[in-house]
């Protein structure tokens, strides 16, 4: 698979960027297994992004991508934020936290773009929106291959117009956050790939519920140039997922995932647990990224206390097909 002269990899597979899960060892193992590794840098500071890139470089000389979260305009409704926080308190109490600090994160997207350029990373992918013209021009002037994320034909067309060199189309089956930036499309991957390849000229990368070589091949037959796999790699030894999250993935049954906004304010697919059930009934939820900041301490405390019922365990619809082992073993199973 060839994106540019400097970005070539053996198999038409991208290891999905998964913020919080993609360790340097995971990205390097993916690159070394012949697929395009991706750093999920969405929650990192600019300096942490730089250190991560340098760490991966020590483990592989293969190309890899950095994935960034495009920041969104957001109106802070203080009353709603207070009500959303109060709603979370019974869950905090179950973790021994009657109250907790909720420092709000500041976006550092422009600084991360600068790091990608300074570190000479050859591929940069985006989710939750598209980068500004300035950033596109800057990255392209530095020969960075750009990949957008779309969940509808409309978003894919905009990604191409904005200068993306390829587009990941994310079907409704996909694990983790939805990359939607116009409305909230939930389109099955087959349908989405079929429609998008007719409407854009740039390479289409299919993502969502691709768990084996047959599904990969069916996407390529529909016109996708590559696939992006996330959940299939979640339980590997190199993955940074919490051990109990990996266990839930390996024990998952069909139909165990659902979409929720309760962890972050943005729609994401994960394994149903007590947090998702308790937060279901029309509870007030702050917009992304505020809700994410409000629940941060709950998630970290749940991880520290080994309480998967309160962790965010993002996973796609085919999670019940996931197996453990190494990244190399999973990649090989696609061939
Ligand atoms: C744990 C997890 C974290 C994710 N984090 C990101 C992310 O940081 N950036 C991104 O663009 N997509 C993210 N995604 C979505 C994946 O890139 C990809 O679209 C998805 O995993 C494909 O569906 P699958 O999980 O069924 O293979 C995440 C997915 C999972 C499962």
From TrEMBL:
Keywords: Detoxification, Flavoprotein, FMN, Monooxygenase, Oxidoreductase. Nitronate monooxygenase that uses molecular oxygen to catalyze the oxidative denitrification of alkyl nitronates. Acts on propionate 3-nitronate (P3N), the presumed physiological substrate. Probably functions in the detoxification of P3N, a metabolic poison produced by plants and fungi as a defense mechanism. This is Probable nitronate monooxygenase. It comes from the Bacteria. CDD domains: NPD_like. The keyword Nucleotide-binding does not apply. It catalyses: 3 propionate 3-nitronate + 3 O2 + H2O = 3 3-oxopropanoate + 2 nitrate + nitrite + H2O2 + 3 H(+). Signal peptide: none annotated. It comes from Sporosarcina saromensis. Pfam families: NMO. Its cofactor is FMN. GO terms for molecular function: monooxygenase activity. Belongs to the nitronate monooxygenase family. NMO class I subfamily.
């Amino acid at each position: 698979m060839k994106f540019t002269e400097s970005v070539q990899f053996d198999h038409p597979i991208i290891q999905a960027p998964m913020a919080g899960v993609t360790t340097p060892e995971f990205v390097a193992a993916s690159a070394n297994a012949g697929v395009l590794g991706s750093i999920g840098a969405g929650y990192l500071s600019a300096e942490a992004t730089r250190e991560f890139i340098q760490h991966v470089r020590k483990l592989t000389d293969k190309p890899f991508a950095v994935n960034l979260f495009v920041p969104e305009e957001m109106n802070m409704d203080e009353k709603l934020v207070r009500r959303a926080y109060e709603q979370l308190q019974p869950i905090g109490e179950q973790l021994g936290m009657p109250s907790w600090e909720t420092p709000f994160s500041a976006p550092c997207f422009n600084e991360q773009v600068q790091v990608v350029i300074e570190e000479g990373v050859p591929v940069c992918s985006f989710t939750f929106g598209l980068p500004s013209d300035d950033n596109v021009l800057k990255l392209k002037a530095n020969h960075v291959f750009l990949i957008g994320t779309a969940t509808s034909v409309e978003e894919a067309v905009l990604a191409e117009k904005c200068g993306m060199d390829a587009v990941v189309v994310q079907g409704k089956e996909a694990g983790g956050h939805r990359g939607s930036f116009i409305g909230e499309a939930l389109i099955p991957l087959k349908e989405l790939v079929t429609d998008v390849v007719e409407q854009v000229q740039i390479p289409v990368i299919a993502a969502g519920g691709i768990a084996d070589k047959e599904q990969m091949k069916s996407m390529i037959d529909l016109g996708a140039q590559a696939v992006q796999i996330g959940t299939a790699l979640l339980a590997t030894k190199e993955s940074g997922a919490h051990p109990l999250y990996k266990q839930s993935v390996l024990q998952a049954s069909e139909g165990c995932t659902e979409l929720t906004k309760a962890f972050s304010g943005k729609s994401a697919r994960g394994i149903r647990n007590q947090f998702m059930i308790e937060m279901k009934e029309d509870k007030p939820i702050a917009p992304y990224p505020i809700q994410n900041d409000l629940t941060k301490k709950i998630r970290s405390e749940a991880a520290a206390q080994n309480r998967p019922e309160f962790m965010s365990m993002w996973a796609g619809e085919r999670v019940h097909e996931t197996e453990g082992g190494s990244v190399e073993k999973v990649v090989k199973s696609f061939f």
